[in-house]
Amino acid sequence: MKTTTTMKKMIIPMKNNHKNKPFSYKYEKGFLFVYFQKPHFNNLEVNMKEEKFLLSYIKGVVSSFTISIILFYILGIILTSSKITEKIITPAILIITGLSILIATSVVMIKNNEKGLLKGGLIGLSYFSILYIVSSISMQNFEINVYSMIMLVITFICGSIGGIVGINIKSYKK
Fold first, then answer.
1. CB 84 within 8 A of CB 133
2. What is the mean pLDDT of residues 15-37?
3. What contacts 24+ positions apart, CB below 8 Å, involve 70-76?
4. DSSP H or E segment with residue 82
5. 5, CA 20 to 30 Å: which among 12, 50, 82, 165?
6. Rounded to two decimals, what is the model's pTM?
7. What is the torsion angle, in degrees rounded to the nearest 10, for the CA atoms of residue 132, residue 134, residue 135 and residue 139?
């Protein structure tokens, strides 16, 4: 009669001293030793920061447009129900746009730790870019004029101020 012996294999995670491979193994005395490489947390932290910023960036732009739509709707109700002249529309659009970007970037940047000026300004410029693209597609006679340049400056400045305020609110709460 033949007898067969079976060797038990055991996988034991251990510290990896091999830098080039994600894992290595060694079979010794009936045991399989598997050595795993320690993950690079610096890369994970950078990716998490990028994802966090991208998410807050999208939230900032979307919430800016949402606040703008609500405020424009209120402006429309006020204009139709009162005897206010149409001369107020252009300044009201600039004020509503700046205010909506300021509020949205302040709220969004509370969760971020750094670069409020840059990130808020980027949200403001993205708001203007989306508005410009949609306007140029929907209107045949669309052109960049002084009003457009004023809107560009207001969106960047209000976004930057909102980013600074949001980060300072967070540090004030600590």
1. no
2. 61
3. 71/96, 71/99, 71/100, 72/96
4. none
5. 12
6. 0.67
7. 150
- CA distance readout (Å), 89 to 75, 96, 102, 132: 9, 10, 20, 18
What residue has token string 């038990």?
8
Q: Could you report how far apart the first and last alpha carbons of the chain are, in Å?
A: 77
Q: Place 13 in a pLDDT band, splitting at 50, 70 and 90.
A: very low
What single letter denotes the amino acid at residue 75? L
Residue carrying structure tokens 């410009």: 132
Rg of the chain in Å (alpha carbons):
28
Count the residues in the chain.
174
Q: Which long-range contacts (CB under 8 A, 24 or more apart) does 115-118 make?
A: 115/163, 116/160, 116/163, 116/164, 116/165, 116/166, 116/167, 116/168, 117/160, 117/163, 117/164, 118/160, 118/163
Q: Please say if the pLDDT value at position 12 is more than 70.
A: no
Rounded mean pLDDT, 60-66: 89
Tens digits of residue pLDDT in 96-142 = 999 999 999 988 888 777 777 888 888 899 999 898 888 888 877 77
